[in-house]
Amino acid sequence: MSSPSPALAYRLEAARGVVQDAARLAMSMRPAPGGPEGKQKSAQDWLTEADGAVENFIAQRMKTLFPDDGFQGEEGGVARAGSLRWVVDPIDGTSNYARGRNRWCVSLGLLEGDEPVAGVIEAPALGEVYTALRGQGAFLNGKRIQASPVTDPASAMIEMGWSNRVPKPIFMEKIDAIMDLGAMPRSGGSGALALADVACGRLDGYIEIVINLWDVAAALPLLAEAGACVSPFLREGGLTGPATILAANPHIARALSSAVGISLD
User: Fold this and answer.
1) Helix 191-200 vs helix 219-226: angle between axes, to the nearest 10 degrees?
2) Which residues are recorded as binding Mg(2+) (predicted)?
């Protein structure tokens, strides 16, 4: 294991504190269980007051701590450029959050140029914090994690994210392919947490046809450090717009890739 860059290690520790405070803010604003609260941007795509408040909180804290670093948020777009760039999804799983459910998180990733190097994902309603730093492993609540050892697709659990930007026939084609492998399909409503689940072995794979950088930036270092296989999301356009992602444990990754027609190369 390589020695961590002191600058990157310091940034990860600082980010951990900022995300913790941001998660507390999000919890204080979380709607009570019931019908969704917030603005519906499109079918099943929600925006709550907390999305903007949490992003602004993180943006200001990171600007104070690291004024030369770039910053990109889901709600505000690319606000600052820099060779090191923070990418935040203030509430990943907003449809869950808007109904007072627990499966949502605050996600903050760090890119060095085009390479994901660190990430923090906190799911405060679940009591879980994921962290990763390039070359230093991936952790859940301080304990090292790794991808699932499952080798038989018929024993695998695969999640697929839904998006209204994906035509129904394409979505159903991929779901059919997953089921034809004998795998168990799931859908939980948070791309960042689904990818974290692949990293820690709770899932054997995750697929989303259209997903954005802020949804995956913090999870990509987790996946790399946990030994998961990931499709070339950034190379396939994920740095500048939505792209497709497949992440899986290394034992079923090729079979899943072949079945759903998403290349790992």
Assistant:
1) 10
2) 74, 89, 91-92, 215
| Contacts for 236 with CB less than 8 Å, ≥ 6 apart | 243, 244
Ligand-binding site membership of 175 (annotated): no
Q: Of 110, 144, 178, which residue sits at a domain end?
A: 144
CATH number at residue 193: 3.40.190.80
Q: Within this chain, do residues 215 and 190 fall inside the same structural domain, yes or no?
A: yes
Same domain, 107 and 157: no
Beta strands 70-73 and 77-80 are antiparallel
Tally the domains of the chain.
Answer: 2
245 annotated binding-site participant: no
Compute CA distances 130 → 12, 156, 166, 219, whole Å.
11, 23, 29, 9
Residue matched to tokens 């679940």: 126
Domain limit, last residue, from 123, 144, 165: 144
Q: What is the mean pLDDT of the chain?
A: 93
Domain identity same for 199 and 173: yes
* Domain extent at residue 162: 153-260
Give residue 179's pLDDT. 97
Residue 79 · residue 59 · CB < 8 Å: yes
Beta-bridge partners for 143: 140
* φ, ψ (nearest 5 deg) of residue 57: -60, -50
Non-local CB neighbours of 156 within 8 Å, separated by 6+ positions:
148, 150, 181, 182, 183, 184, 204, 205, 252, 256
The pTM for the full model equals 0.94
- Has 92 been labeled as part of a binding site? yes
pLDDT of residue 42: 46
Q: CB of 209 within 8 A of CB of 170?
A: yes
